[in-house]
Write a structure and sequence with these properties.
Elements lengths: L4 E4 L5 E4 L4 E2 L5 E2 L6 E4 L14 H5 L14
Antiparallel strand pairs: 1-2, 2-5, 3-4
Length: 73
Amino acid sequence: MSEVKITVRPNGPLRIEGPVKLVDAEGNEWDVAAKPAFSLCRCGASANKPFCDGSHNKIGFQSVESPVKPTEA
């Protein structure tokens, strides 16, 4: 399988690049096979959930925290 890259955008969506299977809470699979990349909403305001539609810009979404790289034990 090819590499998958997930980028946490500051105050924005999660950007997914690479081949993945996207399944919702009910077990329904979204057809994203033809998309080389897509963004998932983090703000909750998208009219196209689970995908980002740019609403985070309109509502001034601010993520609570920046991702922190875990330290090795």
